[in-house]
Amino acid sequence: MNRKKAIQSLLAFAAVGVSSVSIYEWTSTGHAVKLTELPQKKQLIAELAETIIPPY
Q1: What is the pLDDT of residues 6-24, one digit of tens each?
Q2: What's the CA gap between 51 and 53, in Å, rounded?
Q3: Backbone phi, then psi, for 33, in 5-degree steps?
Q4: What is the distance of C-alpha 37 from the center of its chain?
Q5: Residue 26 has pLDDT above 80, yes or no
């Protein structure tokens, strides 16, 4: 393995590691919606559902 290939491999490994940690931190923040707030967000949920599953 030559020097260029070794440096590319190390940089790729570091990039995967940093992105993995970033994604883990981003997804583990725990922004859960309380069940008591669901009736207040009924219109938003309906619009999102219509966007995801368009009416026929």
Answers
A1: 999 999 989 998 888 888 8
A2: 6
A3: -90, 130
A4: 23
A5: no
Over residues 28-48, the pLDDT tens digits come to 766 677 888 888 888 988 888
Sorted by sequence, the CB contacts under 8 Å of residue 41 that are 6+ apart come out as 33
Distance CA 5, CA 9 (A): 6
The residue type found at 2 is: N
Residue pair 41/33 in contact (Cβ under 8 Å)? The answer is yes
In the chain, count of helices (H) and strands (E)? Answer: 2, 0
What pLDDT, on a 0 to 100 scale, did the predictor assign at position 21? 84
